[in-house]
Each structure stands twice: as structure tokens, then as C-alpha cells.
């Protein structure tokens, strides 16, 4: 049976490239993004399911996972890719901007990981690739 992978932040960069790569390798891909209505390339691949996931909205995380399971029956691997870097002089970056980044890169990653835990207890692997952490968990 084909394996299924859920990738966050699949609209561009590493997330986009990774989702297309896994699809070409025959995986079933749940490509999640904040604005799926703008998507053009992923929907051309028959084994990619595009759905909305905003990591700072736990309800959207739950919904995306449930939709993915409904579509493919299971999730074997999660790639926590959504996030961003913020560069500049520390004193020039406001506390609000730092909080926003932690809401996405740290707490957002935690929402997604927590929502995946029932799956993980069965079999899934979780990869976290945002700036603050890079973890390969039981790969
Ligand atoms: N490139 C590097 O050298 C490098 C190095 C270390 C770590 N990383 C990490 O690797 C990941 C991918 O990097 P990249 O270079 O491919 O960056 P990218 O092209 O900017 O892709 C980031 C992705 O994260 C999504 N995203 C941002 N905030 C989100 C949110 N609140 N909810 C859901 N999705 C959100 C973006 O969606 P939108 O299109 O909607 O903005 C985009 O799809 C990032 O987490 C980055 O911090 C990258």
C-alpha cells in the first residue's frame, strides 16, 4: 500500500519541492498551505491532495488532518515545514514580531505535532524543519 505524507507550508520552497518529490516517488501527499485557492502546480498531480492548514489555528490543523485521513485512509509521515526566518539586529525587531514568529515556528509546530500524536502512536514519523528546531524522530 502507498505511504502517505502530510507536509505543512507546501505552497513554496522546501515544502513545495518536497511534496512534488514525494508525489513523483509514488507517495500519497497531503500538501497543506494557508491559501490553497492560489495553488496551481500541486493540483495537477493526481496523488496530491491540497488543503488549507494555518499552523496558528488549531481548528484548521485538526480539519486538515481529518480531511487527509478521509482522502487517503492514514498518515505515515508528517513534515513540520511551515515557518520562516527573521533576520536583522535584535534591538530592531519588536517583541511582537518575535512573538509572531514563535507562534508560527514553535507553537504552530506544537499544534500540528500534538494533533498528529494519535496517528504517531500507531505508526507515523514526524520531521520538524523550522528554524528553531530540526528533529528527525524515529525516521
Ligand atoms: N531555506 C533555508 O535555508 C532554511 C534554513 C533553515 C530552516 N528553514 C526552515 O525551513 C522551512 C521552509 O523554508 P523555505 O526556505 O522553503 O521557506 P518558504 O519558501 O518561505 O516556505 C515557507 C512556507 O511556510 C508557510 N507558512 C508560513 N507561515 C505559516 C503559517 N502560519 N501557517 C502555515 N504555513 C505557513 C509559507 O506559506 P505562505 O506561502 O502562505 O507564506 C510557506 O509555504 C521554514 O520553516 C524555514 O524556517 C529554511
From TrEMBL:
Gene3D superfamilies: NAD(P)-binding Rossmann-like Domain. Keywords: Oxidoreductase. InterPro entries: DHB_DH, NAD(P)-bd_dom_sf, SDR_fam, SDR_oxidoreductase. Belongs to the short-chain dehydrogenases/reductases (SDR) family. This is Short-chain dehydrogenase/reductase SDR. The lineage of its organism: Bacteria, Pseudomonadati, Bacteroidota, Chitinophagia, Chitinophagales.
Amino acid at each position: 500500500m502507498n505511504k502517505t505524507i502530510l507536509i505543512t507550508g507546501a505552497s513554496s520552497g522546501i515544502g513545495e519541492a518536497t511534496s512534488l518529490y514525494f508525489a513523483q516517488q509514488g507517495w500519497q501527499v497531503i500538501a497543506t498551505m494557508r491559501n490553497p485557492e492560489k495553488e496551481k502546480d500541486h493540483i495537477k498531480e493526481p496523488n496530491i491532495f491540497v488543503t488549507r492548514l494555518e499552523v496558528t489555528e488549531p481548528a484548521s490543523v485538526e480539519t486538515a488532518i481529518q480531511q487527509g485521513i478521509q482522502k487517503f485512509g492514514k498518515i505515515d509521515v508528517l513534515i513540520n515545514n511551515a515557518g520562516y526566518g527573521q533576520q536583522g539586529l535584535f534591538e530592531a525587531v519588536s517583541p511582537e514580531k518575535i512573538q509572531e514568529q514563535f507562534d508560527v515556528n514553535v507553537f504552530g509546530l506544537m499544534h500540528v505535532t500534538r494533533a498528529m500524536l494519535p496517528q504517531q502512536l500507531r505508526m507515523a514519523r514526524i520531521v520538524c524543519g523550522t528554524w528553531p528546531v530540526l528533529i528527525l524522530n524515529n525516521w
